Amino acid sequence: MTTSNRRPLIDVAAASLLLTGFAGALLAPTDRLQGDLQRLMYVHVPSAWLAYLSFAVTLVASVARLRTRRDRWDDLAVSSVEVGVFFTALTLATGSLWGKPVWGVWWTWDPRLVTTALLFLVYLAYLGVRRGIVDPDVRARRSAILGIIAFVQIPIVHMSVVWWRTLHQPPTVLKPGQPSMDTAMLGVLLLNVVAFTATYAALVRRRVDIARAEAAAEDALLSDDSPLAGDAVTAPTHVEVLDV
Amino acid sequence: MNGSLLRPLIRAELRAELRAGEVVMTTIPFAASGLLVAAIAIGADTPLLRRVGPGMLWTIVLLFGSFVTLRRTVSGEPTRQEVLTLLGVDPVIQWVARAASSTVLLLGVIAVLVPVTVVIYDPPLTGLAAQAVAAVLVAVGLGALGTLAADLTASTRTRSSLVPLIVTPLTLPLILAAVQVQEGAVYAASPWPWLLLAALADVTIVLAGLLAARTLQEGAV
Fold first, then answer.
1. What CATH number does residue A34 fall under?
2. Does A227 map to a domain?
């Protein structure tokens, strides 16, 4: 099976998993304290996990781009950042929606909230830097460096709930020892994590294809032998000038 | 890496800034007016002003510090950088010179803004030695990160907004440390954990700058 044949397969798998995850989130046991509101967890936690994964992929792709100078790594890095920024925004939005009824505010001075917002801003700057640079090699090199530096924030975001006093609950799944969660809820959460990861893979795959198509179009434009606009005008010859 | 070149390069950077006067004539007055306007917005609540004064100082230093690293004598003259590269000056030395000159200028900015903050906000003046160390650490980190961000965004049209966008989130440990050292001094808490955090952030930023300098300048000339 060729790579292009596999693409619809990934899309179908991602869509099916998402639907199953959505159904699981609706059928999962209701939280005793927060009620149905807690079901936001099935979107909020996988989104946060995807943000970590996306930026980790960008880190690896950025290091690989600097080492090998192959453009495919740059395509992967930027594609992963774009998808990661979307999932970070989703994490912030769902967190804010969850925070209002539980904490009484949309936003508060909380280390997890603030560090996640800063993470979002730095990766927006990453996309901004790329947009401002025309030369593909310079663009790939600079964004690879920023992709590596920006990743420093991920451990800070994850550990912020441990290092500082915070309203946000400490880790319940990614922590030493047993996860502190009902087994059925944990199962649905893990299903949604898998579904979101498959969606991430499908989205990144599509975005890499677009990046390659863009690069090919850029190359074709630069190396094309087709006539330029100015070619229609020819300079007058010496004789023509003298005749006038 | 030829270290003997470092001192003349820093001196040249500072002399160019002294002639242009951008930081002294524009950035510092603008930052001071920021402190004043913020105090007006807060109102005549003296205890509140006392409490928020140090935080306001570091916010202003952070926001206006980015402009120090983007000053015209550095960003407006890419030809000087190109000449230095053609002369065989190591990109790492060039980066260190630019970061060090920005640090010196940032220390100057902080030295002017501290008395302005004292006059306007009247914060408690305790633990001054630890706060001075924190100020140096903030200047080093901000100078290095600003220089790195300026290199990352060189010759882009949106540079003036991209540099603060990169610098502001990544300097969070520095600003947090500076504010917490001041607050800790009020409650007689040890400043060392926060100073260590700022020092660790500085080491990380400077290392990133040193490692990235050659890659960033590759193919620039």
1. 1.20.120
2. no
Domain that holds residue A79: 3-168+180-213
Q: Is B88 left (phi over 0), alpha (psi -120 to 50) or beta?
A: left
What would the pLDDT profile of B59-113 be if each residue is shown by its tens digit? 999 988 888 887 766 655 667 777 888 888 888 999 999 999 999 999 999 999 9
CB contact under 8 A, A121 and B157: no
Q: How far is B61 from chain A (nearest CA, A)?
A: 18
Cα–Cα dist A95/A107, whole Å: 9
Q: What are the pLDDT digits (tens) for A76-102?
A: 999 999 999 999 999 999 998 888 888
Cα B73 to its chain centre, rounded Å, is: 16
> Which tokens go with B172?
């969070």
Is 0.85 exceeded by the ipTM?
no
Best of A129, A137, A148, A165 to disrupt the B interface (most B CBs within 10 Å) is A129
Q: How far is CA B191 from CA B91, B97, B134, B181, B187, in A?
A: 36, 30, 9, 5, 11
pLDDT digits (tens, 9 = 90+) for B138-189: 999 999 999 999 888 887 888 888 888 899 888 888 988 898 888 888 888 8
